[in-house]
Structure formats: C-alpha cells, structure tokens
Amino acid sequence: MITKEDFKSHRIINTNDDDEIIDILIDAVEEFIKSYVGRVIEKETITEYFDGDDLADTIFLANYPVVALTSLQYNRGTYSDPDWQDINADYYQLDDDIGEILIDVMYSGRRNIKAVYEAGYVEDDIPKSLKAAALKLVTKLYDKRSSEGFSIEEVAGARIEWGKFLSDDVKALLAANIKPKL
User: Fold this and answer.
1) 3-class DSSP state of 123
2) 83-92 tens-digit pLDDT
3) Among 48, 114, 120, 124, which is most exposed with the fewest C-beta within 10 angstroms?
4) CB distance 60 to 95 below 8 Å
C-alpha cells in the first residue's frame, strides 16, 4: 500500500536508523486497514465457496475490485469425492467493480459453488485515500514510540494529546473503501 520510501519522504527522514521499525509499522497498519475495510487491498488470488441453496441468483464475492474471475464451478460430486464442473460463462455476468455475480442457473447444495478469482489493486491503482490513511496511521505510530504510556506530552510549550487511534480524518479517508454489510 505504501513503501518505506513513501513514509520516509513524507516524514523527511534521511537516515536508515529506523528502517526496521518503519517496516514493522507499515505492515501492522496495512493489516489493520485490510481488516477495517473488510477486504483485500493489494492483488491476491482468493477461493470462496457458496451454498447454492442460499444464493437465489446473485453471488457476492467477499473481495473487490475483481481483477479476473479464474473459475466459477459447481460440485456434481460429494464432499468426500468432489467433481467440480465449470459453469458456462454465458450463464453469469460479473460486475468486477463490486464483486457481484448475477447467475442464471443456480445449482442447489451446500458449499457447492466455488469461485476462484484475483481481487484487489495493483500498486499504482490503490486508492489515494487508502494511501493517505496509511501514511497518517504509520506517522501516528512512529511519532508515538517515544511517548508510550502517555496520553499528553508537553515539550517546549507545545502540547500533544494522544487520542484514539482512528481520528475522524482517517475514518473519513477509509469510509469509501469499507465493504458494505449485506
């Protein structure tokens, strides 16, 4: 989402002294953001299973944007001896921006529909709002290292209050990227 170089440029850090801690903070913030928005951010391959009995005519993939739908299959076999068959592409339509598959033919059963797909963003396409939120959160954690245990710090007449982890501006940056609850 962001690189160490992005952060060091943002904070105007010209040494490598804190590189290890910066890497840890970036990884932690990226994990937090992924969990907060409820979906993958950087592109990865995902396999999901669905109950054909519960789907009606729509499959909602957990992650988006969908880069590629590798396969959409149904199981003609059993749990112990699966026989996965491709669903003909003429029978479904994918809205890759929101990860929604409209399907004409549904196969009843439990965990009998399998979708394998790539979702997330390539580095250059990650929304700027997510990158800005990551920079703000890493900055907050980096700056707070020397103030662990304190909620207020005063230095040379300047006062800093360490409030909640997610400030309103960071919440606003993340809001548009949160996976809707169905």
Assistant:
1) helix
2) 999 999 999 9
3) 124
4) no
